Structure prediction request, 246 residues.
Amino acid sequence: MDLKITTLAERPELADPLWHMAEDWPEFILHDPVGWSLIGRIVADLPEYVLVATDQDGKVVSRGFSVPLALRARGGELPDGGWDQALLWAFSDLRHGKETDTVSAIEITVDESVRGKGVSGRMLTAMRENARARGFTEVVAPVRPNAKHLEPAALIDEYAYRTREDGLPHDPWLRVHVRAGGVIEKVAHASMTVSGSTAQWREWTGLPFDAEGEVEVPGALVPVHCELARGYAVYVEPNVWVRHVL
Prediction:
């Protein structure tokens, strides 16, 4: 497939179109307060870390967000807070003018019209190359395993390290990362947290949320915990940290 992949800094006119792809993120994911507050700031404040892919007709078919952060200055340990923590650290470092030493992947989204054509792998390669070109020697990624939602009851500590007969990860998105040279390092057990009233969860999911305990929600990697008597439910999503040495 013919793709043109550039940074948003090089093509600022794509700042609006990159949000209008046909995508399938579950509604509840959009209500993570950290992501809701900061994802747009990557486009505004860090366009050189935003990748945009267009097809032969100039249509945006993929976007890739990453952020620089001072990981080694914090000891180099990848945080249990995963995706949320990477965003919080990156924008704290930006605000305080800290010298950054690592790039964290945040998101690669592919338009539904070009799924299954290897676009995600090409975007990951471009993200690695962009980080290398900016003088970084490492990219880390709090990966959201894209088939885990089919097994919400499976323990992430087992799922993350499950492999096929060829030794590659069972999960397709983890497999793309490992093929690109990444190494699975650890599980981020509390990578993203979405909390809301039971009324909000009914709105987001179309499910009744009328019983105490675990609720399996389409698109969720693990069950949502419902406290019916107290009127709220909480989703704590695990991700898998992958480290790419460039």
Q: What stands out?
A: The mean pLDDT is 97. The chain has six helices and nine strands.
